[in-house]
Design goal:
The complex is a heterodimer of chains A (358) and B (359).
Chain A lengths: L8 H11 L5 E5 L3 H10 L6 H12 L8 E6 L1 H4 L9 H7 L3 E5 L4 E3 L7 E3 L5 H10 L4 E8 L8 H20 L3 E8 L7 H21 L8 E2 L15 H13 L8 E4 L6 H13 L7 E6 L1 H11 L6 H19 L25
Parallel strand pairs in A: 1-2, 1-10, 2-3, 3-6, 6-7, 7-8, 9-10
Antiparallel strand pairs in A: 4-5
Chain B lengths: L8 H11 L5 E5 L3 H10 L6 H12 L8 E6 L1 H4 L9 H7 L3 E5 L4 E3 L7 E3 L5 H10 L4 E8 L8 H20 L3 E8 L7 H21 L8 E2 L16 H13 L8 E4 L6 H13 L7 E6 L1 H11 L6 H19 L25
Parallel strand pairs in B: 1-2, 1-10, 2-3, 3-6, 6-7, 7-8, 9-10
Antiparallel strand pairs in B: 4-5
Helix pairs in contact in B: 7-8, 8-9, 9-10, 10-11, 10-12, 11-12
The chains are: A alpha/beta (358), B alpha/beta (359).
């Protein structure tokens, strides 16, 4: 095997496969303190620890939500927080059959000499941090690399740096019992067409899997979190079936069958768009040797946030809104979503923020 | 798409998929003049054009055999030869729905500064040659690269050179309507165990698919011809077909994109029976296998046929029966339905390993 021999191998493989269970997916609730601040300010809620805790408690205790989820990605602060009656969030998740995950990257920095391209940092001391997170109950990790499409972008340098950073992060995670989610997000910003996005996505994913092979990563114990293949945000929209066709073809051309599941990011898509696109992919008749599921942040929480607006009396309604989106996406992983989810306030609203930084 | 736009795209995709039709596989009959000479010498037959023609006619006109064959790889001379009654071989094939293929590489040369590692040559004027072959009826091509396992081999250089040579060859073929078979053979020579072979195979295949992506090759219009994953020929450990199947399929799952329609294994030094039994185990394995798994056998399809023929006209019928038996057995193996009951021709269990094999 070109994969390294990890004492955690069986566990990594089992956990990665579990995350890809049909009917389930990931809730990305790992917004950093700064980013969650922006969300909270959009609903006029103060960014303090209590409010951040309240929001996550609302999400993790929403009736009916956890059965639709196989994993939740957390920010470090949340990994150690408890519900208002003193129960650790990680225990609530575990009892609900949900694996806790942890964001381990430390954001992006610019690559000198490029046109605003970035690389992701966080490798220093990563092994020790992963150990700590594993002890706290985390079983998977996430690291977001960011690329953009432009005249001369993504450059060979940015593809290489981000791919090899992802691979190094991935093997360090596996050495410490965490399933790495490999996330090479190609931003939707731009006026390019879907063919261009497909070409770039294929190039980027091919580079990622070469890097993972070079670094001896155990593919059966990883997940991929890619963008869907779509036109740029300034380009005319296309149907979910067209997105599905281009996306699945890009994956067929680059992602080895050993990878158990692909958990799409939602980028700037509205809640409803993200669900419909995922549904179309799962309806497509073609070779798909990996589960196709979701790892949505904004596209699972938008209407929930708006409904909550920081008020205790809105919690129940907000939790219902979350359940509606979880259930819709659960159906989408099975290709059975009928488009009938009760649209919450803002469910059809685009969540695109230009040059998005978490 | 990161692949280039070819006017032949639909045809390439259809032909590659056809070659992977369940129940069918490839007969590799592309031995160069020098190599076929060695085969002839082993059965005391003179290496002249009429004998080379007679052998290939024997194979291509075997009653009932071509239904198990989706493609035949030819050496250039054979592409232009005819049956004794004057029918071009390519027409015999076409009528039997067999795609003619053509070997287009020009052999290997050593890489300076390495320990006997090689790269494959043949890129100069390749486009022109492919055009000619397409006009003559060829619809797929083959290019063999060779790597070996040793203390420090395969080196990064050998892997890179061979992978990028394969990718360049592949895109030139596609520009000219030929489905490229990508063949990165890792020789079975050596005393390494199966884990080592798996490790090297995964590394080599990962490099190949990165190179193919860099060169904008249309994966849906290619085929892969890899070695199976086995212990080295000098290894003390003999393993069961199920173990070979598990390691082989796992290596492919880790490296070969689902867009590739079919994997057509080379037989290396395996005996006819071993090659069939291993292919059968591969197809019986339960696991993700988003490509057809079939054969592209030379020696492992022709060994008993050659021995039965011995160059004599009166032996043709007997020799053809031997060929039919192996073709049928391998067809069943692609469906996981081989029961090990092929009438073993003389030499069917004989290892065909020749150290440091050169075509």
């Amino acid at each position: 095997m070109s994969a390294f021999t990890s004492k955690f191998a069986d566990e990594l493989i089992a956990n990665a496969a579990y995350i890809g269970t049909p009917g389930k997916g990931i809730l990305a609730a790992d917004e950093s303190t700064g980013t969650i601040g922006k969300r909270l300010s959009s609903i006029n809620v103060e960014n303090n620890e209590t409010n951040r805790r309240n929001l996550r408690e609302l999400l993790f205790t929403a009736p009916g939500a956890l059965p639709c989820l196989s994993g939740v990605i957390l920010f470090e602060e949340t990994l150690y927080q408890k519900s208002s009656d003193g129960k650790l969030f990680v225990d609530i998740l575990k009892e609900g059959g949900v694996l806790p995950g942890i964001k381990v990257d430390k954001g992006t920095v610019e690559l000198a000499g490029t046109n605003g391209e970035t690389t992701t940092q966080g490798l220093d001391g990563l092994g020790d941090r992963c150990k700590k997170y594993y002890e706290a109950g985390a079983r998977f990790a996430k690291w977001r690399a960011v690329l953009k499409i432009g005249e001369n972008e993504p450059s060979e340098l940015s593809i290489h740096e981000n791919a090899y950073g992802l691979a190094r992060y991935a093997v360090i995670c596996q050495e410490n019992g965490l399933v790495p989610i490999v996330e090479p997000e190609i931003l939707v910003d731009g006026s390019h067409d879907i063919q261009k996005c497909a070409a770039v996505t294929e190039r980027v994913l091919a580079a990622c899997y070469k890097a993972l092979s070079d670094h001896h990563v155990l593919l059966e114990g990883t997940l991929l979190k890619p963008n869907m293949v779509t036109p740029g945000s300034d380009s005319p929209k296309v149907s979910p079936e067209v997105i599905a066709e281009h996306t699945v073809r890009a994956l067929q051309r680059t992602v080895p069958a050993a990878v158990p599941a692909i958990v799409f990011l939602s980028g700037g898509q509205s809640e409803e768009e993200a669900t419909r696109n995922l549904n179309a992919m799962n309806q497509l008749k073609t070779k798909k040797p990996w589960s196709l599921s979701f790892s949505f942040g904004r596209a699972l929480q938008q209407s929930t946030l708006k409904t909550w607006s920081g008020k205790e009396e809105n919690v129940k309604a907000a939790q219902e809104a979350l359940y509606v989106r979880c259930k819709a996406n659960s159906e989408a992983t099975l290709g059975t979503y009928k488009g009938d989810a009760k649209l919450g306030d803002g469910a059809a609203e685009s969540l695109h923020v230009k040059d998005y930084k978490y | 798409m990161s692949c280039f736009k070819s006017k032949f795209a639909d045809e390439l995709i259809a032909n590659a998929a056809y070659i992977g039709t369940p129940g069918k596989g490839i007969l590799a009959a592309d031995e160069s003049t020098g190599t076929i000479g060695k085969r002839f010498a082993s059965i005391n037959v003179e290496n002249v054009e009429s004998n080379r023609r007679a052998l290939r006619e024997l194979l291509f006109t075997t009653p009932g055999a071509l239904q198990y064959i989706s493609g035949i790889i030819l050496f250039e001379e054979t592409l232009y030869q005819k049956t004794a009654s004057g029918k071009p071989f390519v027409d015999v094939m076409k009528e039997a729905k067999v795609l003619p293929g053509i070997k287009v590489d020009k052999g290997t040369v050593e890489l300076a500064g390495t320990n006997g590692e090689t790269t494959t040559i043949g890129l100069d004027g390749l486009g022109e040659r492919c055009k000619k072959y397409y006009e003559a009826g060829a619809r797929f091509a083959k290019w063999r690269t060779v790597l070996k396992i040793g203390a420090n081999e395969p080196s990064q250089l050998a892997i890179h050179e061979n992978a990028y040579g394969l990718a360049r060859y592949a895109v030139i073929c596609q520009e000219n309507g030929l489905v490229p078979i990508v063949e990165p053979e890792i020789l079975v020579d050596g005393s390494h165990d199966i884990e080592k072979c798996a490790y090297v195979t995964e590394r080599v295949l990962a490099a190949c698919y990165k190179a193919l992506n860099d060169h904008h090759v249309i994966l849906e219009g290619t085929l892969l011809k890899p070695n199976m994953v086995t212990p080295g020929s000098d290894s003390k450990s003999k393993v069961k077909p199920e173990v070979i199947a598990e390691h082989t399929v796992r290596a492919l799952q880790r490296t070969v994109p689902a867009a590739v329609p079919a994997v057509v294994f080379l037989s290396g030094g395996q005996s006819e029976e071993q090659a069939t039994v291993n292919l059968n185990a591969i197809n019986q394995l339960k696991g993700k296998k988003p490509w057809s798994l079939t054969f592209s056998y030379g020696r492992a399809l022709q060994q008993s046929t050659l021995k039965a023929w011995g160059g004599k006209e009166e032996n043709v019928e007997k020799a053809q029966k031997a060929f039919l038996a192996r073709a049928k057995a391998n067809s069943e193996a692609t469906l996981g339905g081989y029961k090990g009951d092929a009438q073993l021709g003389e030499g069917a269990s004989e290892s065909l390993h020749v150290e440091d094999y050169k075509y």
